[in-house]
Write a structure and sequence with these properties.
The protein is mainly alpha-helical and 81 residues long. It has a domain at 24-62. The chain contains 2 helices and no strands. The longest helix is centred in the N-terminal third of the chain and has 28 residues, at 13-40. It is elongated, with a radius of gyration of 23 Å.
């Protein structure tokens, strides 16, 4: 009868750190929702919606490298160094 392959139970520092950070971030979503509901009441849904739009905008700016954003320097040149 062939021997079944077994997986090793090995965690390195990166694996453990990822598990801990993931647990903290995952639990924080519920804590933040509870604080928001207590502070602003029923309007917390609107606050989450605005925060989601802001986070999406920031993520899109980061993904495009800010090339679509307005120049604050007053220069009309779009050349990047």
């Amino acid at each position: 009868m062939p021997k079944k392959p077994q997986l090793g139970r090995k965690f390195n520092a990166f694996d453990v750190t990822s598990l801990v950070v993931g647990s903290i971030v995952g639990a924080d979503i519920y804590v933040a929702a509870a604080f928001g509901a207590r502070l602003v009441g029923p309007a917390s849904i609107l606050v989450w919606l605005v925060a989601g739009i802001a986070a999406t905008t920031i993520a899109q700016e980061g993904a495009t490298g800010g090339k679509d954003s307005l120049s604050l320097s007053g220069s009309t040149s779009t050349q990047r160094i």
